[in-house]
């Protein structure tokens, strides 16, 4: 499902391109209009006429984000087993639908790794939660208090489970985020089965503060990333960048004691190397080995803290 509004057909075209190059082809796309322009409407109708997998739903502008339009489309028109979403400003990587389909065979709600791409190709990921843990699901359903949520394009769910919800997509209260408000209905459901796929499968281009980038500027970024995606070896290079960002964040967010210890150990390695004839003699394996051990120490420390908390609760 691609929700869209205004005159954004040029953006939707790029989002649709990323769906058309998926590794699986048995999909259907709902372009969900929420007050689109006349020219955009004409374009969507042409695409739908040329490909039976594409369907356009035309609605007047909703007071919020067309939540009830999404609900009607899923409840009365969707024919697939699984539901995925794509913003009209984002791009799927080719294996997104394949990975989501594999996950949703066994669970009701799944997501891939949330990664955002900003100007100058700066990559970030604020995600730290394990969706299998109740306390982390609670945090994801309350991002204002805890700071992390799941962007629309990384989420998928089973259609049959959606239809069992007491309330699906509905007008979002003013103080809440639209998508997170919907996800909370899954995250807080006692019978919902979850899965986190810690693999990046989306080029998510965040809009920034309201009203965000104009469509013309957004289109330039989408076309630039489309060109990157068509280059040989793109995914491997992109994955390396994401891994580097996540490892750096993990170290940076570690306790100050651990950071101090890492700096001290690396300082000793550099001092020893200088005595032996140069910093260049430091083995990458030595440095990486120490960082790995340090991260394992951190993980044990975190697990130990969680166990202590649980023991306090049960005592």
Distance between the termini: 48 Å
Uncertain runs are 270-274, 278-284
Number of strands: 11
Strands in their spatial order, largest beta sheet: 4-9-6-10
Shape: globular
* Beta-strand proportion: 5-15%
**How many H/I helices?**
12
Care to give the gist of this entry?
The chain has helices spanning 9-20, 38-50, 67-76, 96-104, 134-140, 143-146, 159-162, 178-187, 215-229, 234-252, 256-276, 284-314; strands at residues 2-6, 29-36, 54-57, 82-84, 91-92, 109-112, 116-117, 123-124, 155-158, 194-197, 202-203. It has 315 residues and is α/β, with parallel strands linked by helices. The chain has a 4-stranded mixed beta sheet. The chain has a 3-stranded parallel beta sheet with strand order 1-2-3, sandwiched between helices. A two-stranded antiparallel sheet has the order 5-11.
List keywords for this structure.
315 residues, alpha/beta, four-stranded mixed sheet, three-stranded parallel sheet, 11 strands
Describe this structure in words.
It contains twelve helices and eleven strands. It is an alpha/beta fold. The strands form four sheets. Strands 4-9-6-10 form a four-stranded mixed sheet.
Topology record:
Elements: E1 2-6, H1 9-20, E2 29-36, H2 38-50, E3 54-57, H3 67-76, E4 82-84, E5 91-92, H4 96-104, E6 109-112, E7 116-117, E8 123-124, H5 134-140, H6 143-146, E9 155-158, H7 159-162, H8 178-187, E10 194-197, E11 202-203, H9 215-229, H10 234-252, H11 256-276, H12 284-314
Parallel strand pairs: 1-2, 2-3, 6-10
Antiparallel strand pairs: 4-9, 5-11, 6-9, 7-8
Helix pairs in contact: 1-9, 5-8, 11-12
